[in-house]
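Final report, Chapter 2: Outcomes

The project's central promise was a pipeline that accepts a single protein chain and returns its three-dimensional structure in a standardized token representation, suitable for archiving and comparison. That pipeline is now operational. To close this chapter, we reproduce one record exactly as it appears in the project archive, with the input sequence first and the structure output second.
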Amino acid sequence: MLIIHASIREKCGKSSSRRLRTSNKFPAIVYGGNIVSSAIEIVQKSVINLQLETRFYTDVLSLVIDGVETKVKVKAMQRHPFKPKIHHIDFIRVV
């Protein structure tokens, strides 16, 4: 099982997302189930190599948010048009 480490985002919005991307991180969101959706931030290096595998998109992933493990699947992903960078990922909780 693939494991991704993340942390809760303090600020949301366009300017804070731009600051995240310049510091080699990117914003993401986790939603679904009976739990409120969570805005998170992930380090680029931790996901850039994982997303090359096909099981990243098909299998259940283990997302560790500030020490709490959550089972998720990738719902949608936005990439930079020509750089090998990720702009945003939507994760959906698997119950």
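Archive annotation: Helices lie at 14-22, 44-48, 55-58.
This record, like all others produced under the grant, will remain available to the consortium after the project formally closes.
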